[in-house]
Design a protein that fits this description.
Length: 241
């Protein structure tokens, strides 16, 4: 292995550690709670620190503000308003901390990026004995050439219903994706009953999302290359071979 290639791998290691530090700092500034309402004020959604819905509030006079057929859309609109509130608060917090300046510093040539790759930052990888670095590098370059032809990863979406099956929430790791409500059923519901139904559907959707995220995913060829690269980066003796 040439000294130049070893230096490049060492720089990747340092850059990754610095990037992890920035990501950790950004996450620490994420709002613990955000809220938003639809334009009519009939529905309000409160988000948790993960950006997912935590609670719903339905105004007692909701049926005077919107039609029953519009209830599902109002729930989604309230969630989107809460997301906007979350992003605005997050941006202000990062700006006050000078986070963007640290990002710009990392982008600049010759930026100091000391450290090693933290274990928490690395995705779980299989335990491998890496091949010679030249072989790995060749395969990595081929993978980069093929990446534009690969389809984008699918977004996992879960769903949950209330006990009646009349209200269904769609949920992904990024947030609320849909709210489908039986119009005739909704017309006969009080605010308290609707909030209870939303809570039941949300709990079911989160459980479905958690189950899906725990399913083992087969390693792709790129994942195996990543495992080999990490094995090299974390064992300087192999880099010297």
């Amino acid at each position: 292995m040439t000294d130049d290639l070893a230096a490049q791998f060492a720089q990747i290691q340092k850059y990754t550690a610095a990037l992890h530090s920035l990501m950790t700092a950004a996450q620490e500034h994420a709002p613990r709670q955000s809220a938003g309402a639809d334009r009519s004020g009939a529905v309000q959604v409160t988000l948790g620190s993960d950006g997912l819905p935590r609670t719903f509030r339905v105004d007692n006079d909701w049926d005077r503000k919107i039609e029953p057929a519009a209830f599902g859309g109002a729930v989604v609109e309230a969630f989107q308003a809460a997301i906007s509130d979350r992003l605005e608060a997050w941006s202000r917090s990062l700006a006050e901390d000078g986070w963007q300046d640290r990002v710009d510093q990392l982008r600049s040539p010759g930026a100091p990026t000391e450290g090693t790759i933290p274990a928490a930052f690395r995705k779980p990888v299989e335990d491998v004995v890496p091949r010679p670095i030249g072989d790995i590098a060749e395969d990595v370059f081929k993978a980069f050439d093929d990446v534009t032809a690969s389809p984008p990863p699918e977004t996992t979406e879960a769903s949950g219903t209330d006990q009646t099956g009349k209200l269904v929430l769609g949920l992904s790791a990024q947030g609320l994706t849909s709210c489908t409500v039986d119009e005739r059923w909704a017309a006969d519901q009080t605010a308290a009953r609707l909030m209870n139904a939303l809570g039941q559907a949300l709990t079911a959707a989160k459980e479905d999302l958690a189950r899906d995220s725990q399913r083992p995913q087969p390693l792709s060829g790129v994942d195996h290359l990543f495992a080999e690269a990490m094995a090299l980066l974390n064992d300087p003796r192999r880099l010297a071979d």
